[in-house]
Design goal:
heterodimer, A: 112 residues, mainly beta, 0% helix, globular, B: 117 residues, 4-stranded antiparallel sheet
Amino acid sequence: SQQGEEDPQALSIQEGENATMNCSYKTSINNLQWYRQNSGRGLVHLILIRSNEREKHSGRLRVTLDTSKKSSSLLITASRAADTASYFCATVDSNSGYALNFGKGTSLLVTP
Amino acid sequence: DAGVIQSPRHEVTEMGQEVTLRCKPISGHNSLFWYRQTMMRGLELLIYFNNNVPIDDSGMPEDRFSAKMPNASFSTLKIQPSEPRDSAVYFCASSLEWDRQSRQPQHFGDGTRLSIL
């Protein structure tokens, strides 16, 4: 069952601009993960943030987590054309099973 | 390092035929997942194996779907008989030590694009 819901569904920006994607979820979590999917490829893990963390950085990526609002955001700074992909948040429900529940993703287009 | 390997990459077949999708997880990973991705429903977990044992198959849509993991380096997902609504991209993913507390990422193959005519 879907847990995360990304917003916006689609985002178009120019190279060099920042891209922000948001994710909301419904139940308590142990951690939240962000994945990227290039067209025709599998998902690639980007970053994981634990439920007791509020912010995490990895290169040009910045992830925030607000457990009180059950939401997370992914910021990609100084975007590049190669960042064009779909981005998914995923959660493991701390109460129920082992499923990594994905949202439907944000489709990001970065134009030169 | 070799990633998760899936075969075939594409499969087109007529409804009623048996379809077998194959997956080789990353060596040393003890958790394996099968997902299905469609535009309407997004990514759905079908089944999860841990140490070759099926742990959660609640996502398997119906009895036409079955999955096996005879050893740590191979898994199959079979659909028999196939129907047009089974058309989707099927992904296999593997991970180290997956549990509810897991901080290990899942590594995905590039999927099998299945079209049932």
